Amino acid sequence: MTHSSPEPGSAAPGPHTAPASPGTPGTPAAPGPHTAPGAPAAPVTPDAFESALHRMRVWEAEPPRFDPRTAPEDPLDLFRAWFVDAAEAGQPEPHTTQLATVGADGRPDVRTVVLHGADADGWRFASHATSAKGGQLAAHPYAALHFYWPLRARQVRLRGAVTTGTAQEAYADLHARSTGALAAALTGRQSAPLASPEELAEANEAAWERAAADPAAHAPTWTVYRLVPLEAEFFQGDTRRRHVRLRYHRPAPEGAWSRGLLWP
């Protein structure tokens, strides 16, 4: 799973995020020592790819044990416990999650976003309403979230309806974050065609300057979304492949949760 570069505007940089160098926010990284600027990278051979792929292993360390009989009645409580466990175990970026939506053509789409919160009202994330995912959620307000914490051999899947927050919630969400997050939200038109990296660099630098000069600036299309799950599945991996799959289900958002095990 790759989650180090969430879709622009959907992931808020951490509080200490800074431009690549003073006065040049968003400057692209310099080419490597053996690559001429603009030159295509040397292709990886099929054999090299297959060799790298088949050397991969999962769960180098012994995963923790999970007794589903001890699971709480509400999946939110188990999610919070597993999240804190993953963070304390040193799992990089445990707050990143894969958001799956459906396009107007009925085809699935997915990207990595950052979790902004989880409570009785749902699991929160944010983006521009005019982004690809914003348009898809407006047309089909249902989605799935997937968390993977390989250091603990754990996954969590959530499926349900998606609701949008108020304009006040969107403003508070954006301005609770770093200057970099605000600059990202003010930069360009997410998911629209981009003519060149230089166009992005120019818009990004202007956005950084605006965010620094006017911390109260707002991106009017910034939207808080909540996924309200009707189904939640918790997966605990096992080195002997005796994986535990615990599924929670409820008939409606206000309904009571039932739970049971699934064959792995």
From TrEMBL:
One of its GO terms (molecular function) is FMN binding. Keywords: Flavoprotein, FMN, Oxidoreductase. Residues 85-189 form the Pyridoxamine 5'-phosphate oxidase N-terminal domain. Coiled coil: none annotated. InterPro entries: Pyridox_Oxase, Pyridox_Oxase_N, Pyridoxamine_oxidase_dimer_C, Split_barrel_FMN-bd. Its cofactor is FMN. Transmembrane segments: none annotated. Gene3D superfamilies: Electron Transport, Fmn-binding Protein, Chain A (2.30.110.10). The keyword Oxidoreductase applies. Residues 1-42 have a biased composition (Low complexity). Its EC number is 1.4.3.5. One of its GO terms (biological process) is pyridoxine biosynthetic process. Residues 222-264 form the Pyridoxine 5'-phosphate oxidase dimerisation C-terminal domain. The keyword Oxidoreductase applies. Residues 1-48 are annotated as: Disordered. Belongs to the pyridoxamine 5'-phosphate oxidase family. NCBIfam families: PRK05679.1. This is Pyridoxine/pyridoxamine 5'-phosphate oxidase. The gene is pdxH_2.
